[in-house]
Amino acid sequence: MILNRRELLKTFLGAPFAVAACRETRSLRFPEGEIVGQNDSLGHVLREGRAFEVPSDNWKSVRVAIVGGGVAGLSAGWKLAKRGFNDFVILELEKETGGTSRSGEGQPVAYPWGAHYLPVPFQENAELISLIDEMELTEGRASDGSVIVKEQFLCREPEERVFYKGRWYEGLYLHAGDSVEDKRQFAEFQRQIDRWVSWHDAQEKRAFVVPVANCSSDVEATALDKISFSEWLRQNGFTSERLIWYCDYACRDDYGLKVEQTSAWAGLFYFCSRVRKSGDESQQFITFPEGNGRYVNYISSIVNEKILRSHMAASIVPTESGVDVISLADGELRGFHCKNVIYASPIFTAPYVIRGFREDPPFAAAEFHHNAWFVANLFLKDRPKPRFPRDFPLAWDNVLYESPSLGYVNATHQKGIDYGRTIWTYYYPMCHEENGRTKLFDYSWRELADVCLTDVARAHPDIHELCERIDIMRWGHAMISPRPNFIWSETRTKAQKPYRNIHFAHTDLSGIALFEEAFYHGLRAAKAISDG
Known about the structure:
Blueprint (H helix, E strand, L loop, with lengths): L4 H9 L1 H8 L9 E5 L3 H4 L15 E9 L3 H12 L5 E4 L11 E2 L6 E2 L5 E2 L6 H9 L3 E4 L5 E3 L10 E5 L2 E4 L9 H19 L20 H4 L6 H7 L5 H15 L8 H9 L12 E2 L6 H10 L4 E2 L3 E7 L4 E7 L2 E12 L6 H4 L16 E11 L16 E4 L7 E3 L11 E8 L6 H5 L4 H13 L5 H4 E14 L9 H6 L6 E3 L10 H17 L1
Parallel strand pairs: 1-20, 2-3, 2-15, 3-12, 9-17, 15-21
Antiparallel strand pairs: 4-5, 6-11, 7-8, 9-10, 13-14, 14-15, 16-19, 16-20, 17-18, 18-19
Helix pairs in contact: 1-2, 1-14, 4-11, 4-17, 8-10, 9-10
C-alpha cells in the first residue's frame, strides 16, 4: 500500500483534518522507534495446515497443557497451582505473557500495551477479590461487605478530560456549550441506565453484571442483543450529537466497535455492569502505570516455572487416552501427551489447531469475530505546554472529541509524577473501515507514527519537539467483537462446553473482552479439570 501523507491522514483522521494538517509547511521532527510485539508470521503457520512429525525423544507427558498465556491461561494456571495441582504447562506463542494485558518497562515508569484498569469488583466476585487480596491491594471490607482497595491503587484525580475545539474540559461527556435539549436527553439517558441497573428477573438476577455468566437470560434483557446500540438510541428518541458521541466512544473504548456496529446489550452493559445500585457512580478504577500488566506480572511470577514461552501450539490431537499437543519452539517440534487441554487462545483459531474440529465442528468458531487496533507508546522528555491558562489539566485518560482514536493514557499520572518525563499510551481501534486488520499490517512504523503524532498535535502542537521515541504494537486480533446477535447466541453457549478432553477458556466466550471475563473463564476451566 503506497499512500501520500494526505491520503494516509485522511484514511485515519478524516478528510477535513488531513487537509488542514498537510497545509503545514514546517519540517516535522520524527523520533526514533519501531514496531514491537506480536509474532504474526508464526501465527499464520496455522492457516497453512501443515503436517507435523515430532521426534520420538521430544515427547513428554504432562497432565494438563494450557494453550495460551494471556489472562485466561495464566488464571487457569494460578487456580490449578492454588489447588495443589502442579502437573501442567502453559504454552505461549510470544516471548512475553499477558496478551492484551501485557506491559513494558521504561523510564520513569512502566507502561501498558493494552488494558490499563480494573474496576473495583463487587463483593459477589469473591475469587477476583481473592486475587487482589493476595496481591495486597486491599485493606479490609466495608460494613456492607464491599472490598476496600488501598487509596494508592485507586485512580487519582483528575481521571478524565476531553479536548474539543481547542480546549480541554473535565470528564468524558462534553457538558460545555450543551443545549437545553442536550441536557434533557442526557438526563433521560441516565434514567434509562438507572432503570436497567435496578432491573432484576424472577430469579433476582441483574440484566448486566460482571462476569457475564451471572447476567439474566430473561428475554426482556437478551432481546437487546438483537439490535445495534445506535438502533436502541434511535428507538428511545436519543438524537443529541454529544450523547451519541459519548455512546460511540464507550463502544470504541471497550469493544473497538462503532456504536452502529455494537449490540445494544453490549452498549448498555458498558454503562450498567459496574454500577452497584441505581443512582450510584460506577465502581472506582484500580490502576497502575503499567496497567493490567501488574496482574499479568504477578500471576506469571506464581506459575513462571510452568510457562514455556515462544511455544506455538501447532496441532492438538484428541486421542483415546487424552490429547496430544505439538508445539513449535525455535524451529523445533516438541510434543506433550496430556490428559486434558485448556484452550486459552482466541476461539476462532480452534479449527486451525484442533484435529477433527473442521470435520465435525462442535460450534461455529468463525462466528467469533475480532477487531484490530494499534497502540503507540510515546516517550516524552517533558510535558506539552498548556494552550490556555484555564484549560483543564493533564489527566489519567485524555480523549480527543473530534478524533476516531481514543486519545492517550498518561502512565506517570498514578505515581503523582506531574512534571518532566512521561510516557503516553495512544490507542487507535481500526473500526473506521472494512478490512482494518489487513490494512493495519500494510502500514509502516513511520506511517503509523505520523498518524499518532498528527492526531495528538491537534491538542499539543509541540508534541514533535517533545517526543523522543514512539514504539508501536499492532494487535491484529485485539479482542472479541460483541456485534448484534452474538452474545446471546447458541454459538457462544456451545463453545463453553468441552470438546472431548479440551476445555475452552478465553474472554471470547463472554463476548466481552475484559480482564474479569478472561479471569472467570480461566478459573472455570481449571475447576472443571481439577474436580474431574
